[in-house]
Prior knowledge:
By secondary structure, this protein is α/β, with parallel strands linked by helices. The protein has helices at about 15-25, 75-85, 105-110, 115-120, 125-135, 155-165, 195-205, 240-255, 260-270, 285-295, 305-310, 325-340, and strands at about 1-5, 30-35, 40-45, 50-55, 65-70, 95, 150-155, 170, 210-220, 220-225, 280-285, 300-305, 340-345, 355.
Amino acid sequence: MVTIVVGGHFGDEGKGKMVSYLAVKDDVDVVARAGVGPNAGHTVYHKGKEYGLRMIPCGFVNEKASLFIGAGVLVDTQRFLKEVALTGSGDRIRVDGRCAIIEEKHKREDSSDKYLKDKVGTTGSGCGPANAERAHRTIKLAREIPEMEPYLADVPLELNTALDDGKTVLLEASQGFGLSLFYGTYPFVTSKDTTSSMAAVDVGIGPTRVKEVIVIYKAYTTRVGEGPMSSLITEENIEDNPLWQEVLKDAEDEGIDGGDVNDILAKYFREWGTVTQRKRRVGAFDIELARYSSMVNGATGICITCLDKIFPECRSVTEYAGLSDRVKSYVREIEEGVGVNAVLLSTGPELEDVVDLRKD
Ligand code: GTP
Ligand code: IMP
Ligand code: MG
């Protein structure tokens, strides 16, 4: 059976943490990375160490799982080899020979082109220029790179055979719905669609084989880079919002100051980009975007992360009964607004900080 995990807002929803939780908890056989490429930064804590992964699937924390990178994903060879060494996953990660390769020229263009860098505010990882060259049909593929040779495989064949054998497959997407090239806030988007259907395409699995789509949201909305954000918290609108006034007060009580309200909230929540170290803008939970993205993604369940950042009393709680009434009603409101039940709630960055509401 196939489960897809996908971001429902603007990326950085905590997919890394939730994929590693599911990989271990459900003891999945296979974890495959979909999505754009190394523009994603997934944060995972494993055995007391923090990993900022951009290529290797976060499911590597399950040491028995086979790991794959699908043909749709752009590969940065040096970054890939570095993460293979960092995670010690060389004997169980395989990459499709048809993955397109990011070269230095793509990274140079991504960080020097004024439109990409300043207007779109890209990550500079070379993904946009590489996908443009891929569409131009002049890009190099992984099968042409000697250093990639030991890792190559036919990923669709591997995954579909695993499914035929009754194995479980977890698909890890990247970015978020609002950054989709097709459905996001164009032109402030990434260079590909970011929905669950695209994740299946990325790794070569047909839609009829997908059983579960879990759409992940943070308990609030963040956005790194340029582009509109309708739920942004500002000096003006915080006045009418008692919950956010309380969060701001908690931040100030911790001695956080400097900058405007949004800077204070970003500092309090430690919202800095994993890849670019840029400040992420902070907004209230964008319920309209969440509803729409769950619809397009075909969500079978939703996951809400970082609840502990707004409601510190729920930090590391793992049982629904242990959540405060205000957290329960916050979650209920999101479920009603989105129209999909919550299946997982995250109450801290550690793998085990999860309230799992799925039926056994
Ligand atoms: P992209 O693919 O870049 O969109 O990344 P991502 O969805 O994997 O998220 P990323 O790791 O960039 O950012 C999420 C941040 O929140 C990381 O620092 C996580 O460690 C942290 N995090 C995830 N879940 C929780 C949670 O429930 N509580 C707290 N306090 N932190 C969390
Ligand atoms: P690109 O994907 O590097 O071309 O960047 C395009 C837009 O998507 C920029 O606004 C980036 O900040 C944003 N973006 C790309 N990848 C991520 C991600 O993994 N998390 C959050 N934002 C991202
Ligand atoms: Mg990220």
